[in-house]
């Protein structure tokens, strides 16, 4: 009998045998050739994969539309940009991909005085 991971094969014909009983004294009978194979406790292999390894139409539809909470929108950074209303030299900004992926993103600027403007990259 030959063991590959947790699979047990008949040494005479190569047929996949039923799972191990865990008893080293037991024998496993091959249903194809009738050979008796000594039961060997196989090594258990545990593998993990990311959900992206197995594409799913349902998962793709779910991730196509995302709802942002107020906490998610608080990801602003500060840049040197002149506010047209108060003249302050720093404005907060955030970028969002509103158009197709091959086009630039939209930059939203906000000043502490309340002035807002947008720019398309």
Mean residue pLDDT:
81
Q: Nearest-angstrom radius of gyration?
A: 31 Å
C-alpha geometry: rod-shaped
Total strands? 8
Class of the largest domain in CATH? Answer: Mainly Beta
Number of helices: 1
Structural class: mainly beta
What is the name of the CATH architecture of the largest domain?
Answer: Single Sheet
Strand order of the largest sheet: 5-6-7-8
Percentage of β-strand residues:
25-35%
Measure the end-to-end span.
Answer: 65 Å
Order of helices and strands: EEEEHEEEE
GO molecular function, one term: DNA-directed RNA polymerase activity
Organism: Penicillium decumbens
Subcellular location: Nucleus, Nucleolus
Binding site for Zn(2+) 1: 10, 13, 30, 33
Task: Report what the structure shows.
With 121 residues, the chain is mainly beta. It has two domains: 1-45, no CATH class; 74-120, Single Sheet (N-terminal domain of TfIIb), CATH 2.20.25. It is 7% helix and 27% strand. The chain has one helix spanning 57-64, and strands at residues 2-4, 7-9, 27-29, 36-38, 77-80, 90-96, 106-110, 116-120. The strands form three sheets. It has a four-stranded antiparallel sheet, with no helix packed on it. A two-stranded antiparallel ribbon has the order 1-2. A two-stranded antiparallel sheet has the order 3-4. A hairpin with a 6-residue loop joins strand 3 and strand 4 (36-38). The longest helix is centred in the middle third of the chain and has 8 residues, at 57-64. The chain is rod-shaped, with a radius of gyration of 31 Å. The termini are far apart.
